[in-house]
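hey can u run this one w/ iron/sulfur cluster bound, need the structure tokens asap thx
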Amino acid sequence: MKKKIKILIELTLDRLPENLKHRVSLFFNGLKHVLGKGYRRFGFFSFWIRVCDFIVVRTNGDKFIEFELTNICNAQCVFCPYPDMLRTDKKFMNMNDEILAKSISKINEFKSALISFTPTTGDTLLHPEWDKYISSVLEQKGIAKATIFTNAIKLDEENADKFIQLLKKDEKGKMSQLYFSFGGLDVNTYKSLYKVDRFDMVKENINHFLSLLKRERMSVGIHIHVKLLKNQVFDPILAKTLLNKNNYPFVYFSHSSFYFSNDGYKRNAIIDYYPDEQPVKEYACSYLNKTRFAADGGVWADGCVISEMPGDSSLKLGNVDDERSVIEKERTRIIDDWEKRQVIPKPCQGCTVYRCRKGESR
Ligand code: SF4
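ok here u go:
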């Protein structure tokens, strides 16, 4: 019964128009923040905080901004083009102060529902000043909601403390959800998927961080996404035993047995991929509405892991020195080329993340 209600709410939220989704998201993020203050004294608020988390993550919409503090990574995942990109002339770097300042002035023009500190490739915690950079973005009045996706390899004790301080400083509760990715539920799966031997370290990092959140009576939603190999079955009890030993109440597990890909992306035999259900894509993808601010100052449409192919920049809209009108003109050109001339950008060809934008107003 509970599952049916959840599915019904999910379907309803998914059908909301983009601007209404935006408002619902902000309302429940704000409500969660108020409940979070009450939770410090009254534990029974936790149920309603979980309800808010459920709604907030399902109303992120399509127009959010990916903010890439670094494109350097500490893993070499088999489902990511990063290992191939290392062999191209792409510049791997951390965002610097100048690009940060220019990116901030640009994102203030976007009025986006959400800023996601998620690089296309890379891990945000590798930036030496990740906490200061994120704080300076969160301080912007125009930013209402933010999140981060990390593999938590660098979520050591020092970074965990920095994170707690960052969340305390975030007085309006803008960063209400954090996402961690984890490779399987055993040492061998982790190593097969991430190509680094960090299973035990990340397990301890996550448990330590959750224990700090619990100690501080914080109510940040922690979403742990477990990646699996072909034919593996997710075990929620084992996941909880391994990664949430202290029973922090706002942990949500999800898993993937299938991975996204596109036509230009080398496939790996140890994992399963989503099929391309729409071989003929008449309309452009709605994710072209997303914008990524890259570590080197580039501005791109979309920011998913396969939207920047090695040696390809067909989704690049410009850079932080360009006027917003120039960036939007390029976005329109890409969409028009697709819909009027069937010129589909390379990363979008055979892309299994594709979501049809038919019917949406630009
Ligand atoms: S089709 Fe794929 S690569 Fe292209 S914008 Fe959509 S999700 Fe990104």
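The longest strand covers residues 177-183. anyway lmk if its weird
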